[in-house]
Amino acid sequence: MLGGKSVLITGAGTGIGAAAARVFCREGAAVTLVARREKELAGLTAELTGAGHRAQYVLADVRQRADVARAVAAATEAFGGLDAAFNNAGLAAMPGPMHLVDDETYDSVMDTNVRGVWHCLQYEIAAMLEGGGGAIVNNSSTAGLVATVAGSPYIAAKHAVIGLTKAAANEYGSRGIRVNAIATGATRTGMLGEYLDQDPGREPAMAGKAMVGRLAAPHEIAEAAAWLCSDRSSYITGATVPVDGGRTAR
User: Fold this and answer.
1) For the chain, percent of residues with pLDDT exceeding 70
2) Phi, psi of 242 (to 5 degrees)
3) Closest CA to 118 of 159, 160, 169
4) How would you classify residue 217: left for phi > 0, otherwise alpha for psi between -120 and 50, otherwise beta?
5) Residue-range domain boundaries for the chain
6) CB 3.0-4.6 Å disulfide test: which of 2, 116, 214, 219 passes with 62?
């Protein structure tokens, strides 16, 4: 499905990003893994290359323009261009009343989830224009479609990701670049686990909001991202695809 394609994945050290690295490699891609923590990146890259896949990692913070430029350059130099990208890096804030959210929390969430995607889109699109096209998937959330239990800055940020997705798709569709988003439902990752661990009743309540009655596994989100990055979704752009077990269909 992705044979021979050069793919960049942000937030790749753990959770959905790490699952995506494994799925994209299984489908034949050469992957550039981007995150801030070297231990996880190095271990995952060693796992993938040890299994015969093409993989490298770049320590980078998507909030920093220079870091993103360096990561995209590394992908193009190592694997002959950039064909696809999964902009997965994100930061959540603990739910709380809007009127009590401080500026530090708001800025932190918006910087990673919006500015980070903005930086990635700019450099990925530039690289894909040079290479004749490509596909980009931005990881939004059900919180980008509806108001959820997530904190208000997170809801605002994930709505913004969908707006950036539509804008980029509209600008570059005629130039061979497709841009889509996935609205990820509650997924069993370390980040969500910290929230669920605070109250044993949270997980069944959250799982019950999905039609399938459970949380997603990281690889289920990764499979959707891989499909949207592949030529099998060649007539899909500007879309936000819910991968949420039916949560937003109710």
Assistant:
1) 100
2) -70, 125
3) 160
4) beta
5) 6-244
6) 116
Calpha distance 234→231 (Å, rounded): 5
DSSP string for 166-223? HHHHHHHGGGTEEEEEEEE--B--HHHHHHHTT-TTHHHHHHTTSTTSSPBPHHHHHH
**Mean pLDDT value of segment 197-225:** 92
Q: What is the pLDDT of residues 153-171, one digit of tens each?
A: 999 999 999 999 999 999 9
Q: How many CB atoms lie within 10 A of CB 107?
A: 12
- 3-class SS of residue 246: coil
Of 106, 154, 195, 235, the catalytic one is 154
Tokens of 107: 């800025």
- Long-range contact pairs involving 102-108 (C-beta distance under 8 Å, separation at least 24): 105/151, 105/153, 106/153
Taking the C-alpha atoms of residue 196 and residue 116, their distance in angstroms, rounded to an integer, is 26
235 flagged as catalytic: no
Identify the three-state secondary structure at position 150: coil
Sheet holding 240-243, edge to edge: 55-59, 30-35, 6-10, 84-87, 134-139, 177-184, 240-243
The letter for the amino acid at 224 is A
What is the rounded CA–CA span in Å between residue 33 and residue 12?
Answer: 5
